[in-house]
Design goal:
With 294 residues, the protein is α/β, with parallel strands linked by helices. The protein contains eleven helices and 14 strands. Helix 1 packs across helix 7, helix 3 crosses helix 4 and helix 8 crosses helix 11.
């Protein structure tokens, strides 16, 4: 089976590539920086260098593939994130149509059933609709809030054992470790029995409030951690310092508003729901704690 993989240098794309190579699949890796995936080339993967917003590149790179893993990469410097996401989605649809790609597995997000009120997920709603117009068979994977988002809180955790977010500690949110997404993605790509439009929701073993999440992190790293709700005005400077454009910073704040309102949540009806194994406490112990100590 010949499978094209976007973002092979990212957490999910890299793990997915590892899984599929071990299963003996023929892979085409679409990479802006091919030197970062040379190890995969030595193991038999074909590397195509280019940008996902380049129509000519994407059509040529995906010619003859049996399946496509599509992930819309973020652009944190964008002046209009949703327009950027839509532009990439349109390029993907052209490649799917031109090459008649039989199956597409699209990494979307929890909350992508809504056209508004979800911050950066709004653009993924658009991408889902675009892919559905082009692909005869498409599966949207809608994972929960990533555990890895807590990397942005490492300095505050290290300094005073606190996590500052513009959302109530009582708000509940599905969460997941990104490493648990790739195995599900690989299984879906290799399964040739499903047809039509499908949605698979993915979350970890327990749905936590943000206060409970902080407690789980504390248990994992071996010291108390507290969730502290702050105002959006207190978060904006931090987001800009982290490298986000003014526009993208506002979009990210919209995500937390969506979480607080309950809009960034699973659709439930008509979707398959899977619980993955890694707990937040385990993630904190194995990933956050070494990062803090390092």
């Amino acid at each position: 089976m010949k499978i094209a993989i976007t973002t092979p240098t990212g957490h999910i794309g890299h793990s997915l590539t590892e899984i599929l190579l071990e299963k003996g699949q023929e892979l085409v890796l679409l990479a802006r920086h091919p030197q970062k995936v040379q190890g995969f080339a030595q193991r038999g993967a074909t590397i195509r260098q280019g940008s996902l917003d380049d129509q000519q590149f994407l059509v040529g790179a995906t010619k003859g593939v049996d399946a496509l893993f599509w992930l819309t990469p973020p652009d944190y410097q964008s002046k209009d994130l949703r327009a950027y996401q839509v532009r990439l989605g349109k390029v993907a649809t052209l490649a799917i149509r031109e090459n008649r790609i039989p199956r597409v597995v699209n990494l979307s997000s929890v909350g992508a059933q809504h056209a508004s009120g979800t911050g950066p997920v709004e653009g993924l709603y658009d991408v889902e609709k675009l892919l559905e117009e082009a692909a005869e068979n498409v599966t949207h994977l809608r994972p929960a809030y990533f555990f890895e988002n807590y990397f942005m809180a490492l300095e505050a955790i290290k300094a005073n054992g606190q996590i500052f977010l513009p959302v109530s500690g009582e708000a509940r949110m599905s969460m997941i470790a990104t490493k648990d997404i790739a195995p599900v993605t690989g299984d879906r790509l290799l399964d040739t029995t499903w047809t039509g439009r499908n949605v698979i929701e993915l979350e970890g073993p327990a749905r936590l409030s943000f206060a409970e999440a902080a407690e789980q992190i504390g248990m994992g790293i071996g010291r108390p951690v507290q969730h502290v709700q702050v105002e959006e005005d207190q978060v904006r400077p931090f987001l800009k310092q982290a490298g986000l454009s003014d526009s993208v910073a506002e979009v990210m704040l919209g995500l937390y508003r969506g979480i607080g309102s309950g809009r960034v949540a699973f659709e439930g009806k008509g979707a398959t729901h899977l619980n993955t194994a890694t707990s937040l406490e385990e993630f904190a112990r194995k990933v956050l704690k070494p990062a803090l100590e390092g």
